Amino acid sequence: MSTAKLVAESGKIVDVATTDAPLTVRGLTVSYGNKPAVFSVDASIPAGSMTAIIGPNGAGKSTFLKGTLGVVPRLSGEVRIFGKLFAEARDRVAYVPQRASVDWDFPARVIDVVLMGLYGSVGLFRLWRSRHREQAMECLERVGMADFADRQIGQLSGGQQQRVFLARALAQNAEFYLLDEPFAGVDAATERAIVSVLKELKAEGRTVVCVHHDLSTVPEYFDRVLLINVRRIAEGPVETTFTAENLQETYGGRLASAHIDELHLA
Amino acid sequence: MSFIDYFLSALFLQAGYNSALVAIGAGLLGLSAGSAGAFIFLRKRALVSDAISHATLPGVGLAFMIMVAFGSDGRWLPGLIIGSAISSAIGLLMVEWITRKTRLTEDAAIGAVLSVFFGFGIVLLTVIQTMSSGRQAGLENFLLGSTAGMLISEAATIAVAGALAAAFVFLLRRPMTLVAFDPEYAATTGVNVRNIDLAMMGLALIVTVIGLKIVGLILIVALLIIPPVTARFWTNQVGPMIGIAAAVGGLSGYIGAVLSAAEASLPTGPIIVLVAFGFFLISALFSPLRGGLASALRHQQFQRRVHRRQGLLSLARREPIYDGLTLRILRRSGMIRRDGVATARGRIAAQKAARDEARWAIARRMLPDDSVIERYDGLTPIEQMMTPDQIAEIDRMILAQQGAKA
Predict the structure, then answer these.
(1) Does B237 touch chain A (CB under 8 A)?
(2) Is the ipTM here above 0.85?
(3) What torsion, rounded to 10 degrees, do the Cα atoms A124, A128, A132, A134 define?
């Protein structure tokens, strides 16, 4: 763990400072109080992949995501985004927080939330132009929410709120998307809409990482997995890494072997 | 001159130079307080601004003592404002430090800082009163505000600082909106959340110190919070909300100052706050968007639509109706007779309702991901949500189904 080099999935040794992969993490530790929520986790996400971060509740999946983006302070570890510090690669990254993290009674319409994704490109002083609004509408169109543009966000269902958050991230036009539990508590139509948008992003050569909780959909939606339970358990392609053995190690006794048998594992 | 006469002439700035000055100053103060307060309200940090305002008191006392020690009057307003700004900035940073570095929550930090600073300030005021400077009278006016004998230089100070605060709000509106709505996301887009929070509270600080003279430190938090809360009843967007909050704050300050000038024994700060509360009360009751009456009315109408629809569907299925409200609604709209039997109109309406239900059932299967399905509330006539072509297509599918069954 303390070596300066990182061993990538292929067995090749990668120097943190020279890789330009969308995400390279070495020895990331984040703690709330004196108990590490994430302890010395390594990860390396190749470009154009779709990775699910999997682990039991309280295993530090969301904290790992926030730690890589500097939303929560790091205790130790190195993070490189496209080979750079996050602050230097910020405009290539879009983050979709958990839906429950905000107050949906906030005075904003759907379109206002999506326009927030354009704050970075509009700047502090300039006013909104029709092209910004068109851009935002295109993003809403992609998630099937264009008809809701003028609705107050408090009137949306959970799935619709999630799609608005995704549209805001799309407005950033990033190369690397990090989503925190995008499928948690959403309806089937929303799940289909989000998956198809994420697959479009992948087809465009962009990179996607999702904190994910539904093991049964992992092979269908993702091509790579990162298994976390405070420590990193395993990382790699679904075919080789999403195995009963690794899941048992990640979830411990919390995942009945009968449940594992139902999954379509490699 | 009677109170009413004086009030009316003061309202139109005809009651003399001094009261016009005070009214304009208070209006500008309310304007900046309302717009700055909008973000503090959205960020849910009203109580932090209360700590800031109470933390001004030791600064006022110390600034007075220092100015007297250097042989000046001691009541020079810019000096007192600088002193209060420094001590409330220290209070604000202490709240922030306690919250960040210890495991205490923000409310505990606010309670501690607020009471300690205020207590220290009261001790200083008492010491000043026993000092033999002889000119100390008036410092206690900073507690509840007083506009008697306001100088043009003081009004000018308030006007300039108020305009500065309003400009500050305009410049920072985007990052402040983002931080208030979704701080974690804001951090990932490069907004320094801590600095924006400090800037937001810095605005509260500016408003507080310029409001010391007119509203006083105890009640300034009301002028920061009541206008945005009032504005929230009228709009669902941040931009208009800031505008309305600024207008409510400005009007409250102006009208309150005029009222208090009309009857010299009325303290300015409390009167301004009561006027603001009047705006709040009217909005809470009568706003068509989020006011209490409109909400109750909407709920009642919605309930009636639901009962009517349920009743018609029961008629179509020839089920008995027992619900009193449903029966009353159907009877009053001529759908059923007194004895509960459907009229001709009722039968037609019931058939239409049943047909629309069947159409929606098909639509849900045909267009599972269409937003029209998501927007459907179960009550709106299908013609208002789908095109005639779509409905015709659905009807063809229903016919095909019936044909298959037969």
Answers:
(1) yes
(2) yes
(3) 160
